[in-house]
Each structure stands twice: as C-alpha cells, then as structure tokens.
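Supplementary Methods. Inverse-folding protocol.

Structures were first reduced to a discrete structure-token string of length 176. This string, shown here, constituted the complete conditioning input.
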C-alpha cells in the first residue's frame, strides 16, 4: 500500500473513505446488507498491522459486505491474541453479523482518524484481497476489485483493533 497521504481523484470515493460512524449503517441505507465471512482465526499480521498493534500475529477476521447480493466492501480486522481473549473476545462469536455491532454499540470504544490507502497492484496485501474477491464473485457478473481502502484503529480498555475496509469501485454510484 502507498502512504496514507494518497487521495483518489473521485470526490464520491473520497466521501466514502472519510465517512465516519458505521459503514454498515451507511450501506444499509442503500439496500440489503449481508456479511460473508471469508476467514477468521490466528494469522500473521501485515506490516501496517504490526506497526499499529505492536505485535507480529494475532486474531484476523476477513469479510465481504454484500449489498443487494453484490460485493461492495472487503474488510479485514486484526487484534492481538491477548485482546481477543479480553475486551475484543466478542469478535470470535460474531459469525455473519457485522463488526459494527461491537464497534458502535458501546461508549468505551475510541477510534483513530480514518486513513485512506491506495492498494498497490500486486502487493502481497492486494493479491490476497483480490484472490478472495475473485473467488467470491466466481461465475457471477464480474465485479471490479477494490483499488482504494481506509483504515483506523479502535481501542477498548487500551487494546487496539485495526480495521481496514476496501471499497469496490462501483460504490461511487452511491452517496456516502
């Protein structure tokens, strides 16, 4: 990924990348939202996750948010093994429910500023995300994979949880 200072040219995409509050709520305003869990469990962290979470590995959950049956957002959340046994333990039992249920339901959760990221083509992170995206869309009408993402760190009782959300290009057809 490129440094956080990158900014897309499309103002509608910029609005999505900087929209605060619950992404789930914003998407639900446009249709039926379904969460598809792609992977969850212990995993090595990516470099930026290592920097933000101050450890090498932990609990990772990867999902795609489907809007009216179409992939809209690929998301990855990561936290330490210690945190998933403590204040973020509910993460393990979310199943197909959105992470927003944990993040925006309690007043004890703080969030860092949103950081936009351009997904560098063929970077390990982009290849991983794109492979999952392509498997999910399969034989359906092709849906272009995300090129832009945002990330932030949520904190609860001093334990960080990093969330990255990558937006399908078609999301610019919707208001943030």
């Amino acid at each position: 990924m490129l440094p956080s200072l990158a900014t897309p040219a499309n103002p509608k995409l910029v609005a999505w990348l900087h929209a605060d509050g619950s992404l789930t709520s914003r998407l639900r305003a446009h249709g039926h939202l379904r969460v598809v869990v792609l992977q969850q469990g212990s995993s090595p962290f990516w470099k930026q996750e290592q920097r933000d979470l101050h450890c090498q590995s932990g609990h990772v959950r990867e999902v795609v948010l489907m809007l009216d049956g179409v992939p809209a957002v690929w998301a990855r959340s990561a936290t330490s093994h210690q945190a998933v046994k403590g204040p973020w333990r509910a993460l393990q039992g979310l199943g197909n429910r959105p992470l927003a249920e944990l993040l925006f339901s309690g007043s004890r959760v703080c969030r860092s500023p949103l950081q936009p990221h351009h997904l560098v083509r063929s970077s390990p992170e982009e290849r991983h995300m794109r492979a999952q995206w392509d498997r999910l869309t399969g034989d359906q009408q092709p849906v272009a994979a995300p090129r832009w993402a945002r990330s932030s760190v949520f904190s609860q009782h001093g334990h960080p949880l990093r969330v990255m959300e990558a937006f399908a290009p078609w999301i610019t057809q919707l208001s943030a």
